[in-house]
DNA sequence: CACACGTGGAT
DNA sequence: TATCCAAGTGT
């Protein structure tokens, strides 16, 4: 459809026609209509609980690894109250190798809170979502938008990268989310709720599928013609180096090894079994203490350990 | 605000 | 092989 001459005053049907980023909405949403992945948490039957589970699992973990675990969780704990009634250690065990197992503990805690405070229904109110353990700025907006169709700026790493390039004209967004990014995201939000929710999902999908961190696919991008970064000749990121993660030899690696033993065990494990995962006793003890302090491991009398029962 | 927090696939 | 990266949160 051809764009008619811009009317002197915006009509209700095109309420955001003059708003910032209005020229991005239609191309990105239309592209999403044709290219969105058929992910289980996007199906209507997933419900708000399914959306919430997926958002926890997708925090720093790729879709491909989340898919099978997501299906297992939803089948085993179809409602928040089902998870709340089970032991937190079972959530940690079922988390498998998704990484960052504290997310499993927090998701269990969120299920308990939902059962106690919200009658077992995932709240739709942003502030109530934000008050749940494991839910921060991004996840609260994501659940409210994806599950309940509300109008929120959903600023994840994909959206931040798309905005950095298409609007700001730089290759990468800042290390941490800035006030300027929040302001921009709000300014770019379509006025009406359903379109805003669609835009949130579409802009995120664009970052996930085409406008990726490396090897971006501008030839298929629906907004390549307007992309500030591409128009500027795609200059390389200059600023401070993007924070890299080290892993080998860290406490995180040791914690991972300890927890792997406990996930596989269905009876309490003796200290000696845990000692075998790491040779350095000081670091090993520190890692185990950390897991206990985090509530991921429950110490028992007699030098035995297990995943938390309560 | 910088850092801790898992894991595995891709380059 | 060494890095980078993947729908962040909590402190």
From TrEMBL:
Reactions mediated catalytically: Hydrolyzes free adenine bases from 7,8-dihydro-8-oxoguanine:adenine mismatched double-stranded DNA, leaving an apurinic site
Enzyme class: hydrolase
Keywords: DNA damage, DNA repair, Glycosidase, Hydrolase, Iron, Iron-sulfur, Metal-binding
Disordered: annotated span: 1-22
EC number: 3.2.2.31
Transmembrane helix is among the record's keywords: no
Cofactor section: [4Fe-4S] cluster
InterPro entries linked: DNA_glycosylase, Endonuclease-III-like_CS2, HhH-GPD_domain, HhH_base_excis_C, HhH_motif, MIG/MutY
Keyword Metal-binding applies: yes
Biased composition (Low complexity): 11-22
Start and end residues of each HhH-GPD domain: 57-209
Pfam families, per the entry: HHH (PF00633), HhH-GPD (PF00730)
Biased composition (Pro residues): 1-10
Family: Belongs to the Nth/MutY family.
UniProt-recorded name of the protein: Adenine DNA glycosylase
Organism per entry: Streptomyces sp. 900129855
């Amino acid at each position: 459809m051809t764009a008619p001459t811009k009317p002197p005053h915006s009509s209700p049907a095109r309420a955001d026609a003059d708003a910032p980023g209005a020229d991005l909405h239609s191309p990105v949403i239309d592209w999403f209509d044709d290219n969105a992945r058929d992910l289980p948490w996007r199906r209507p039957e997933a419900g708000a609980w399914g959306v919430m589970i997926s958002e926890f699992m997708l925090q720093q973990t790729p879709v491909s690894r989340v898919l099978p675990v997501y299906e297992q969780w939803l089948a085993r704990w179809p409602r928040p109250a089902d998870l709340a009634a089970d032991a937190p250690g079972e959530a940690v065990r079922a988390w498998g190798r998704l990484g960052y197992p504290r997310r499993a503990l927090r998701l269990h805690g969120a299920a308990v809170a939902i059962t106690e405070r919200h009658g077992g229904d995932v709240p739709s109110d942003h502030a109530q979502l934000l008050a749940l353990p494991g839910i921060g700025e991004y996840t609260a907006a994501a659940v409210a938008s994806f599950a309940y169709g509300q109008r929120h700026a959903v600023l994840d790493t994909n959206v931040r990268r798309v905005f950095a390039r298409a609007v700001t004209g730089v290759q990468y967004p800042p290390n941490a989310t800035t006030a300027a990014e929040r302001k921009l995201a709000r300014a770019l939000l379509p006025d009406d709720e359903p379109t805003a929710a669609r835009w949130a999902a579409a802009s995120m999908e664009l970052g996930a599928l085409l406008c990726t961190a490396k090897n971006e696919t501008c030839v298929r991008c629906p907004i390549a013609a307007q992309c500030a970064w591409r128009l500027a000749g795609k200059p390389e990121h200059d600023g401070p180096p993007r924070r890299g993660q080290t892993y080998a030899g860290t406490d995180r690696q040791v914690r991972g090894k300890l927890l792997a033993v406990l996930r596989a065990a269905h009876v309490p494990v003796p200290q000696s079994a845990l000692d075998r995962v790491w040779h350095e006793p000081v670091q090993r003890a520190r890692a185990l203490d950390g897991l206990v302090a985090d509530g991921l491991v429950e110490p028992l009398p007699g030098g035995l350990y297990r995943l938390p029962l309560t």
